[in-house]
Each structure stands twice: as C-alpha cells, then as structure tokens.
Amino acid sequence: MSEEKEKIVEAPGCLTAEPDLEGYELVYEKPDTFTDVRMHYCPGCGHSTAHKILGEVIQELGIQNNIIGVAPVGCSVFAYDYLDIDWQEAAHGRATAVATGIKRVRPDNYVFTYQGDGDLAAIGTAETIHCINRGENVTIIFINNGVYGMTSGQMAPTSLAGMKTTTSPYGRDIKTMGSPIKVSELIANLPGAFYVTRQAVHSANYARKAKKAIMNGLRYQKLGLGTSFIEIVTNCPSNWKMTPLQTIDFINNEMLHYYPLGDVKLPSKEALDALAEIEKGEKK
Amino acid sequence: MEQDIRLMKGNEAMAEAAIQAGIDAYFGYPITPQSEVPEYLSREMPSRGGVFLQAESEVASINMVYGAAGAGARVMTSSSSPGYSLMQEGVSYIACAQLPCLLVNVNRGGPGLGTIQPSQGDYFQATKGGGHGDYRLIVLAPSSVQEMADFVFLGFELAEKYRTPVLMLSDGAIGQMMEKVVFNHKPLPKTEKPWATTGKKEGKHRSIITSLFIQPEVMEKVNIELNKKYAEISKNEVRLEEIHTEDAEYIIVAYGLSARISHKTVELARAKGIKAGLVRPITLYPYPYDRIGELANKAKKMMTMELNAGQMVEDVRLAVNGKIPVGHYGRLGGIIPSPEEVLENFEKFIKE
Ligand SMILES: Cc1ncc(C[n+]2csc(CCOP(=O)(O)OP(=O)(O)O)c2C)c(N)n1
Ligand code: SF4
Ligand SMILES: [Mg+2]
Predict the structure, then answer these.
(1) Is the distance from CB of A196 to CB of A139 less than 8 angstroms?
(2) What residues does B51 pair with on adjacent strands?
(3) How much is the CA Rg of chain B, to the nearest whole Å?
(4) What is the DSSP secondary-structure string of B14-63?
(5) Which residues pair with A155 in a beta bridge?
(6) From B209's CA, which of A72, A211, A242, B266 has a CA 20 to 30 Å away?
C-alpha cells in the first residue's frame, strides 16, 4: 500500500517548530533522495546520520529509480518515510529473506536491507546467515547500537559484557546471557560474503568512511559475486541514558574496543578490476 | 487438439500446474507429505524458467514470498501442517500488505509433530485466522488430483483479482494419490501491478509495501478496506458442489478427501432407500453459509464428515442456525474411514 507524502508530515512525538533560516547562508543540505518528512529519531542518534549518508550515496550513484530498500522492525522501521525510494517493510528479523525474494525476481534492481542488531543478530540470525551463505547479491547495512532501541532499551545480542539494560539491570552477565556477538567476523567466514566492513558515524571522518563503504557495498551488486555487509557501530543516547556527547565517549572507549573498526573481508583485485571495466562501460 | 492427459500425484500435478500458470518464483522447505512439490519444481524450473529456492525454513520461505510478491512476481510456497504453522506471522503480514500469492498446506495429522498421514485438522487455522489480526484468506479445498492442478490457476486468478493471499488446503492423501489429470488450462495473463516495488521510476508514484499503520485512525481505515474486500469476496466467490440435494432429507457436508468418501457413502445410502445428499464446499472461505442454510429449510438433519475432531461442523451450525440438528463424524490421527464406516455412523445419527 503506497502513500505519498507531499507536505511535511510530523512523525509522532517530534518537534514541530519550523527553523527560522532568515539571514543564513545555506552550506549543508539534505540529499534529493530525502522526503520532506521530519525524522522521528532522538537527537544525536546514529540512525539519522546513517540515513543521511545512505541517501547521499543513492543520489551520487544515480540509482534512486532503480533501488529497493527493505526496512526492519526497530527504530528504523519508518526508514521508508525518509528516503524517497521504493521500499518494503519486513517482519522483525526477516529483512534478508524479503530482500532475497525481491532480488531473485528483480535481479536488475539494487536491493539493500537496513537492520538493527536485535533484528539482524537475534531474531533474524538464521535469515542473515543463510542470505549471506547463498551469497545473495544484496547489500546489508547493520546498525549496531548494542541495545533494543525501539522497545526502549532491552539487552541486544550485541550489548557489551556488563552493560546495563532494562532486561540486564545488573549488567550483562556473559555466563548466563551469552557474549556479545561480533557479527561481521562471524559472517565473514561464509564464502558468500563478498565484502564485510565495520564502520562508525559518530564523527565527520568516520561518517565519510562509512559513506564510502556503503557506496562500495552497493556498487559491488554490479558484479553479482556475493553479499556486501556494512556494520555501523553507533549509539542510542536515549536508552544508554547518556547525552549524545557522552555516547561518543562510550563508543570510543568501550564499543570500539570490542568492535574494532575496519574491513573484515575485501574483494579480490580481479573482482575490482572487473568492476572498473563495468563502470567504464557505464560511462560510455 | 490433442489433450495433455497425465497420471500424476496430486503434489506433482500442483507443481506442474504452477509452472504452466507462469510462476516467477517458488520458495519452500521440505516436509512430508508435500516434498514432491519442491522436488518437482527444482527439477523442472531451471529449464522452464522461474526461480526455485529451497529456503532455510518456512519462516524464511514465507518472507521470501512477501518480498517477491511485493516486487510484483507471481509467487507461491507450499508446506504441510507444522511448516505452515511456522509461516503464520508472514501470512498475516502478506494479508495486511495485500500481496497476491498462492500458499499450499498439504494437511497432515497434528497437533505437534503429529503424523505424516492425511488430516483435516488445520481447518480452523486455515479459515479462522492462523496468524494474528483481522484478516481472511481465500481458502480452496481440492478433492482430486485434477483439482490440485485446477486450483493453482484459480488461486492465482483470485489472488491477483483481489490482491490477497490464497490458500489451497489439501491433505496428505490428495497430495500423494495418483490420478488422471488433464492439463487444458487457459494461460493466465500477467496482471498490472502498479503498486509493486520495481524501483521508483520517473513520474511513477513510489511504492511502499508495508503492514505498519501506527496511527489508530489509519490502521482502522486499512482494516475497513480489508473487510470491504472480504465482503466482496464473500459475495462473488463462494463455490460448492452438490450431489443429490434436490430431494435430500439427510445431508452430509464434507470437503476435500472426506467429500470423496462421503460421496460413496451417499450412493450407498441411496441404494438402501435413504434420501441422502452431499454438499461439498470448494471454498472454505468464503463459506457457503447461505446455500447450506437454504438446504436446511427442507432437509431433516445434516452431518459433517471431517478428518478432525469437529471443526467445519461449527460453520454448518452457523449456516443452519438451529433449524435442524447438525452432527459430526470424524476420524483422527491420520486414519481414513471407509464409506461403509461413515454410512454406519450416518445411519446412527439419522436414527438418534
Ligand atoms: C516478532 C516480534 N517480536 C518482537 C517485536 C518487538 N520489537 C520491536 S523492535 C525490537 C528490537 C529492535 O531492536 P534493534 O533491532 O536493535 O533495532 P534498534 O531499535 O535498536 O535500531 C523488538 C524486540 C516485534 N515487533 N516482533
Ligand atoms: S531510541 Fe535509540 S536508536 Fe531509537 S531513535 Fe532513539 S536514540 Fe536512536
Ligand atoms: Mg539496536
């Protein structure tokens, strides 16, 4: 069921004041791939930055008319309100199965999922692993904020050891609750994983790198050689009960120790050469 | 024109019909007694076109169906009771997102892991919900191998006409038995699906497939829209077969495999001078309430014969609305009664 939003639509619970831009010079804009719907994300939440760079990538690759996104159940369940592309909203954890269905019948479309850590690494673990094991030619964007954001801060499979959440109020005890899952390292072992990288978005520099990674992940679909997986380690100020600035310290001092940034699996040189050939052809 | 007549299992006939009906994709997971379907399709589809994918579970297959149907493909899955149970969350999402597709449940005995023998124990699940929320499926009940093939075509036709999932509720006997089947179906034209996600083309409204309507007013609107559609379906799509009902005093109501057995029973009863008749609902949703209610004006008693503990009998009671006594005879656990056994119990019920 599609419903086009023409005017600015208020997401439930968001601020409504229109900013007064009189006398300001515009130096930073939202990408054309964005709708005019105001985001519902909490201030300082990494989801909005991740959306922003994703929107820029889609614009810069010129694929707005040729891409289908799959939104998860999680705080980003409304992603389809913000990015002006075709979308499907999947059941909790099933985004990679839905993406498989789409890509198999529409191989010429770019297809990606955008999923939280509860969605992808708890309830949807089987779908995630098998999608990547089949090497489905899709791009997975994995938002690791160490917590169930949407349902207000319960323990996620990625919550750090000792981390206090509403369902681990005394801290995550790895003896009874398991250890935080390093999804990127886990799935990189699958032959179907073509490109696996862990990124962040809590500084301009990190966001630039993450943007490059998303761009590559989508470009690799031209090769059809496997699944691209971009993990983004980020925050949830509301449920971490921190200010956005405090979350930056927590990411730097805690999260990135356990979840080190960087590429986990890179495409071969031959594959990249083949991609260069394809893209040369596209320019002509 | 030469006829295409084959001797096939119900499951194979259904799979062959699916290819002839032009499916773009099949997603499924093996389970007895329907594994012939993925086996047949995995063998045939590579050379005849379309995507065959064995998923990691029924949860995955139904969500692949969601994705492919949402992208505009003609798509189906099949399973048997435990596997079909596992799909229910996805079926609810598909119903709400209004995605046309064909689902097949080759019913085996339950609850639980149950037995691989035929059963009609999934009638409630098929017709009264299955998944969460206010939704309905069109439910078709084949009672022959021929109908397992025919209802693939009918199923897709209805699914695409109403933008709704259609369930074929078969059982382990119809799925496994071999019979003559004629393939003479008219090709199914591809329908326009402007709502499908195919990439937001220039000038095209963008497509969003979702079942999330967080504002109560919007959700209610969707609920009302769905129910309007179900009312339309109820008005137009009731299908049933009647045998000897013109003068029938005692009527058996049965669907699928039970209807085949009961047909024999009715003939045996007639031979003994009992004015017996058979009503065979072909659509279990929409259910032929009106016609059964009408027949109750003339008949003295009605009995359902079901391979379950008495499920459809509740719908017959609703239809009859207290006008005449309604009974049930059934066997459980995958046991199939003979027409004689049914007759004995039918006569007992008549005398009661
Ligand atoms: C089948 C099912 N179980 C549970 C839920 C409730 N639920 C909604 S979102 C969510 C967790 C989301 O966490 P995550 O995937 O990490 O996303 P985030 O909000 O943190 O971005 C849960 C448990 C649901 N919607 N469906
Ligand atoms: S609850 Fe957390 S993840 Fe969700 S929008 Fe707020 S800060 Fe972001
Ligand atoms: Mg999370």
Answers:
(1) no
(2) B25
(3) 21
(4) HHHHHHHTT-SEEEE---TTSTHHHHHHHHHHHHH-SEEEE-SSHHHHHH
(5) A147
(6) A211
Nearest CA to ligand 2 atom 2: A236
What is the band of B205 on the pLDDT scale with cuts at 50, 70, 90? confident
Residues B81 and B121: beta-carbon distance below 8 Å: yes
- B241-351 CATH choice from 3.40.50.150, 3.40.50.300, 2.60.40.10, 3.40.50.920: 3.40.50.920
For residues B82, B85, B90 and B96, what is the CA-based torsion angle, rounded to 10 degrees? 150
Rounded Cα gap, residues B336 and A119, in angstroms: 44
Architecture of domain B4-236: 3-Layer(aba) Sandwich (3.40)
Give the C-alpha separation, A71 to A51, whole Å.
Answer: 12
CB atoms within 10 A of CB B187: 9
Q: In whole angstroms, what is the distance from residue B301 CA to residue A236 CA?
A: 66
CB B107 within 8 A of CB B80: yes
Residue of chain A whose Cα is closest to the Cα of B226: A1
CATH number at residue A54: 3.40.50.970
CB contact under 8 A, A87 and B212: no
pTM: 0.95
| Helical spans, DSSP H, in A70-124 | 79-82, 95-105, 117-118
Tokens at residue A155, please?
């323990």
Residues in chain A: 284
Rounded to whole angstroms, the Cα distance separating A272 from B352 reads: 81
Q: How confident is the model at residue B141 (pLDDT cuts 50, 70, 90)?
A: very high
Residue A10, pLDDT above cutoff 80: no
Amino acid (1-letter code) at residue B62? I
The number of the ligand 1 atom at minimal distance from the alpha carbon of A120 is 15
Contact B199 A65 (CB under 8 A): yes
In ligand 1, which atom is closest to the CA atom of A236?
20
The pairing of beta strand B101-107 with beta strand B75-79: parallel
Q: What is the mean pLDDT of residues A161-181?
A: 98
How far apart are the C-alpha atoms of B22 and B9, rounded to whole Å?
20
The pick from A81, A144, A150 for probing ligand 2's pocket by mutation, whose C-beta has the most ligand atoms within 8 angstroms, reads A150
DSSP state of B130: S
Predicted local confidence at residue B30, as pLDDT = 98
User: For A43-101, what is each residue's pLDDT tens digit?
Assistant: 999 999 999 999 999 999 999 999 999 999 999 999 999 999 999 999 999 999 999 99
